UniProtKB/TrEMBL annotation:
Coiled-coil segments: none
High-level lineage: Eukaryota, Metazoa, Chordata, Craniata, Vertebrata
Protein family (similarity comment): Belongs to the GIPC family.
SUPFAM superfamilies: PDZ domain-like
Pfam families per the UniProt record, alphabetical: GIPC1_GH1, GIPC1_GH2, PDZ
Ranges where the PDZ domain occurs: 59-139
InterPro entries: GH2_GIPC, GIPC1-3_GH1, GIPC1/2/3, PDZ, PDZ_sf
Protein known as: PDZ domain-containing protein GIPC2
Annotated organism of origin: Alligator sinensis (Chinese alligator)
Length: 258
């Protein structure tokens, strides 16, 4: 089974924070704020899960001197949008108070707790160039900075991973299910679709990307894929150009073009 630890508190006496609203995001097999290790929709049965909880609040005033802020935003699925990436050399990169992992609590006094990542990204994008705006942020609690992550036993071999071990798939709707890991081809397609989500929507959501790839698993043409995508994710109302690019990414992965 997967093991759960709290990355931002003293767990020597088993004191894991009880309120789910305290949890900002989780990482797999590392206590560090590593956005490449974010918990997505799948958990290996031997993984360690580290819960990063809310820490101190901070406010920062930002002059939007450029159209793009250089932020990539994601969320934890329960109303906590946070910064996943800051583009090097961007406007936000110059503001050292804003960090990867920070939860965006409000924009110009507008509370965005409960908003999905794409809704927060849309609000930030809508801010006029030349406008000064205020962000209220919450940092993840920091702990174990001088400690290396606890290592799993040496029995977990690369061959076990490559063969496709069973994982626990968490879904926003419906029960969790025990499934096989995606194939290497699907993994490549998922990563590419995640890149497309960032390009088109300014978000990263590996679970959403995986759902889109699953929708195209047995489809023979883009029309069938568009119908399946609409049935699974119709609320997103993806533009046709984006859907076509996603279908192309799935096809490229199957053909081994990346």
């Amino acid at each position: 089974m997967a093991h759960v630890c709290a990355a931002g508190c003293d767990v020597q006496r088993g004191d894991v924070p009880s309120g789910p609203k305290l949890i900002m995001f989780c990482t797999l097999n590392t206590h560090r704020i590593d956005m490449d290790k974010l918990l997505g929709g799948q958990i290996g049965l031997e993984d360690f899960i580290f819960a990063h909880i809310k820490g101190p609040k901070k406010e920062v005033d930002i002059l939007k001197s450029e159209e793009s802020l250089g932020l990539t935003i994601t969320d934890n699925g329960t109303g906590c949008a946070f910064i996943k990436r800051i583009k090097e050399g961007s406007l936000i990169d110059q503001i050292k108070m804003v960090c990867v992992g920070d939860h965006i609590e409000s924009i110009n006094g507008k509370n965005v707790v409960g908003y999905r990542h794409y809704e927060v990204a849309k609000l930030l994008k809508a801010l006029e160039k030349g406008q000064t705006f205020k962000l209220q942020l919450i940092e993840p609690m920091k702990a174990f900075e001088m400690i290396e992550p606890r290592l799993k036993g040496g029995n977990l071999s690369e061959t076990k991973i490559s063969r496709g071990r069973e994982t626990l798939r968490l879904r926003s709707k419906g029960p969790a299910t025990l499934e096989e890991m995606p194939s290497d081809v699907e993994e490549k397609a998922i990563k590419k679709v995640d890149d497309l989500l960032e390009m088109y929507m300014g978000i990263r959501d590996i679970e959403l990307a995986a759902t889109m790839v699953e929708a195209g698993r047995d489809k023979k043409n883009p029309d069938e894929f568009a119908v399946a995508l609409d049935e699974a994710l119709g609320d997103f109302a993806f533009p046709d150009e984006f859907v076509f690019d996603v279908w192309g990414a799935i096809g490229d992965a199957k053909e081994g073009r990346f």
